[in-house]
Amino acid sequence: MAPSRQEGKGKSRSTESGSIILSIDFATTQSGAAYVRRNGREDPDPDLIESIREFPDDQLPRHERGMPSDQVPTEVSYPNPEASMSFMAIDVESDDEESDIETFDIFQNHVIKTPAGGHPNNSQNEEGSPPRTDSITPRSPTLDGQDGSNDEDSPRPLPDCARWGFECQRWPHLRNVTAESRIRNTPVCFMKLMLDESKVTEDIRRKQRKDLRNLRMMLLDESGSGRRIIERYRDVIVDFLTLFLQHGKCQLEIHCGLQDDEASEMVFTVPAIWSPKACMVMEAALMEAMDKARLIRAADIFMVSEQEAAAEFVLYDIPRISRRNTFILLDAGGGTVDAITLVVGATDPLRLEREAVEPDGKLCRSTFLNEAFYNFLSSTLHPDDFEHPEDFSPQLDGRIRRTLHDVIMSEGVMGAFETVVKRRMDFDNFRDALQWFQIDGLKENKARGSTAGWLKITKEVATFPCTCEYKKMFEETLAGVRAVLASQLKRCLESEHIVVDYVVLIGGFGGCPALVNKLDKFLKTVSPSLWHTPIKLHKAKPDQSAVAVARGGVMRAFNKEKGPKRKLRLSYGILRHESYDKEYAGHKWRRGKNVTRCRVDGLWIRSKKWKYDMKKNSELFFVSDQPVEDHWPRYHAKNKGKRCQAIGTIEVDVSDLRNEFPIEYPEDNAHSRPHYVIALGITVQINDRHIQVSAEYGGQILPGSAKYISIASAFRPGTK
User: Fold this and answer.
1) Where does the record place Polar residues bias (predicted)?
2) CATH architecture of the region 314-365+473-539
C-alpha cells in the first residue's frame, strides 16, 4: 500500500474538534462524498452534513434536479483525438491474450517486445526467481493476472489525458472527435467490481479484464519512455479517485475553508463482504490518490462498512429502535442489488452486531435500465428524424460527425435518464414524471410526441410506438429487486428466532417512487402471513437516498466507540536485504542464485527477504492465520500465495552524521570501496489505525524520518 506522507514526533494523531470529516462512497456506477466540520460537536447532526457537488461538465439544467448533482459517474477514460486508425485492428472480443499483445505492438511507434502475459519485465526466470527488476513498491493485481509488482522505480503520475465523471459522458460527443477515436475513448466503468470476488460479478470481471488489457495496449506514456499508462487494475481506480479528490479539495476550500495544514479525517466505505485483500487494495488506491491530490495530508483514515454507514444515516430518526432489532438492508444501486440481514447490537451509539443469514445479491442492477433505454431509443430514432441526416454518414475525409450512439449517450438523453427520470419514475403519477429528453437537431413530429430539439414520452402520446416497452423495462428491474428482497425474507423465515422488524432501502435507485411503492405493497402483503406483524419500510429522503452511505460514513466517524475488537486481519513486517547467514535455511536456499555482493562493503547479502514483526498469529492480537516465513525470499514457494506486498518506504538523510563516523577503507577485500557504517535504530509501532515508523540515532528521531502508514484495512471495518 502506498505510504501516507506524514511526519510527526510520535504523538497520537486524533482528529481535532474543529477538523473536517470527509467521507467517500466509491460506488459501482455513481460515486459521492459528504463532509462536515466538527466545530466542537460530539454528536452528528445529519442536517449539517453537506455533499460534494459542482462536478466538472455536470451540465444537466439545475432546475431539473433543484441543485447540482451530488453524485458523479464512476468512470474514467484516456481520450486522444489524434489516435490513428491502426488501433481498430485490435480484436477486442478475442480470447487469445497473446494475439492481442502481438497485434498491439505492430501498430505502435514504440515497439515493446512484450511476452505473453504482460509487462516486458514481468517474465519469470527459473521457478521461484523474481523478475529482472524488483523494486519495493505497492503491489496489486496486474493486467496479466499475476499478483503484481509495479516494476517502476518512479511513482506513476496521473496521465494528462485522463478524463473522469461527466467528462467521460460528454467528451466523445463533441463534433470534432473522430468516430475512430471514440472506440479508444470508451470509459472504464464498473471498476469497483474488480475488487468484488463473488460469483455474481464473475462474468463482468472477466469482460473487464479483457477490456482493460486491450486498453492497456493502446496507451503509452507520452514521454516516450515506452511505459504503459495502465499497468495494474488499481491504476484506473487511482486515477478516478485522484481526480475526484482534487475536485473535492477545491470544494472544501471554497465551502469549508480547508487549510493545507489542517488536521482532518478521511472516511472510506467498503462492502461488508469484501475480503481483507480487497480492502487493502482499496485503501492503497485511496492513499495513493490522496497523495497525488495533496488532500488532507495529516488525515486519519477510517474504514467503515457501507451497510453500517447507511444504517447509521437512515435509522437515525427512527424512534424506539432497540437492541436485538433485526432489519434487512436492501441496496438498490447501479451495480448489483444486495440484501443483507443485520442485527442491532447497540443503540447508543448505533452498532450492528452480525449478519443473521447469508446475504443475497443479483445482477438486476438499475444500469440494466440504461441498457434497455439505450435499446429502446436505438430502435426508435433514425437519422431521417434529424435536421441534418447527412451528419450521420461518412464525410469526404472519412470522418463521421455524429452517430445515434452519441445522441443517445449525450447528457440531455442518457444523462437525464440516469440522474433524473429513472430515479423519479412513478407509475401512479406517470404524467407528472419528467419524460422530456433534449436531443439537438431533432425535427418536430407531433405524432410521436417530439418537438424541435426535444423528445417527449407520456401516456398522452398513445401513438408513440414503444410506450409499453418503455414501462416494461422498468417493471423487469423492479421485479428483480423485489425477488432479491423475497429471497432474503425466505432465508430469515427458514432460520430460527429471526423476526424482521424493518427493511431499509438505500442506493441510487432506492429513492425511485415506483420501486418504493412496489416494495411497500409487497411487504404489506407478505409480512402478516410470515410473522403476523407488519414489516416497516424505511428509506432516506428522496434527495439523499443515493448519498446515504457517504453521509452515514461521516456520522459513523463522530463516535468510534463500541466498534469491532482490534484484531489484525493482515500481517505486517519489513522487507530488506540481509547479510548472508548460513544459520537461516532461507539463506542457504539456492546459494549463488539470489546471493550477491554488496557493492559498498563487499559482504554477501541475501536480497529482499521478509522479516515479519507483527503477524496475525502473534500473541499481541490473538488471531491466527498462515504466517509468512521469515528470511525467505518473497518469491519462494514457502511464501507463494500469501499475498505479501510492500506498503511504504522510509528514506533517511544521514548527511549530518558523516563527521561522527570514520570512513571505512577496504583492506584485502577487492569487492568493497570506502564507505561509512552508520548504525540507526528503526522504530515500528502501531498507533491507532497507523503504523508509525521512524529512524533514530542517539535517542533522537532523525528529521524527516517519521512517517505514518495507514493500516485501517488490517482491521474489520469500523474498528477504532
Assistant:
1) 120-140
2) 2-Layer Sandwich (3.30)
